[in-house]
Structure formats: structure tokens, C-alpha cells
Design goal:
two-stranded antiparallel sheet, mainly alpha, 2 domains
């Protein structure tokens, strides 16, 4: 049986054999490859884009910088539209878009969030912490 998980572009799908230990190791390796590709994307694309729009180097994109970002992307916003966009993207409600919020937005294709997406993103941090703890022997223990 094959899954739809592809560790990186151009690779074959991960093959699941039915051997729990082997399959767990295969999935760990596939997830590690995906994480490496994700981390590379962060360093080569997301961070430079964030730094470009964080004009004052504060570590966050404020309303003025968000307006410039939108204008640069070909979607100039009014003050009211910028307020709505900032409210939509500012998941932690501190009035600015920090790198983590920008990163999430970047990986959604720079689309606005609906209620379901916003809730999934909030849950994502909790899920990531859980997944980070699941390594090697812990996976074996979980499935036995």
C-alpha cells in the first residue's frame, strides 16, 4: 500500500508495508525530509520576504508596513481594509503581524483566514508541540 505523502518533490510516495516498526521509521524519515524542506523554504523565501516588509526592523509588520506590503503585491488597501486585514492576520491580538503569523499567512497562499482556518492555526501550535515529542521509541510505545 502506498500513501500520498511525498517527502520531497519528485520522490515516490512512501510505501507502507504493514510492519509497524518499519512503517513508523519510514514515516519518521519522511516527516524529517518534509521538515527539512519546510525549514529551507523558511530561510530562503519567508524570512527574506518578512524582513523586506518589516521596514523598521522591529520584528513585526505594523499597519503602515501591511499597507505597503499589500500595495507591493498589487492589492492596495484603504485604511479600513488594512484594519480588517490586520485584525484577520494578527492571531495573538497584539496589533502587529509577527514572524509566526506572517509565516502562517505565507503558507496559506497569502489568503485571508476564515473562522475554521483561524481555529486550525491556533490548534496547530499545540499539535506541533505534541508531534515534536513523538520521536523514535516514543512512536513505538504509542502504537504498541
Amino acid at each position: 500500500m502506498k500513501t500520498n505523502i511525498k517527502p520531497s518533490l519528485g520522490n515516490s510516495p512512501v510505501e507502507i508495508t504493514g510492519d509497524v516498526e518499519k512503517d513508523a521509521q519510514t514515516m519518521i524519515e519522511a516527516l524529517d525530509q518534509l521538515k527539512t524542506a519546510y525549514d529551507e523554504k523558511i530561510e530562503t523565501d519567508v524570512k527574506p520576504a518578512f524582513q523586506k516588509f518589516d521596514a523598521d526592523g522591529s520584528g513585526a509588520i505594523d499597519k503602515k508596513e501591511l499597507q505597503k506590503l499589500s500595495e507591493t503585491l498589487g492589492f492596495p488597501l484603504t485604511d479600513e481594509q488594512t484594519d480588517v486585514a490586520l485584525k484577520d492576520l494578527d492571531l495573538n491580538k497584539d496589533g502587529v503581524i509577527d514572524f509566526n503569523e506572517f509565516q502562517r499567512w505565507y503558507f496559506t497562499g497569502m489568503k485571508s483566514y476564515n473562522g475554521k482556518t483561524r481555529n486550525l492555526l491556533r490548534m496547530g501550535n499545540k499539535s506541533r508541540a505534541i508531534l515534536d515529542k513523538i520521536k523514535g521509541q516514543e512512536i513505538f510505545d504509542l502504537i504498541h
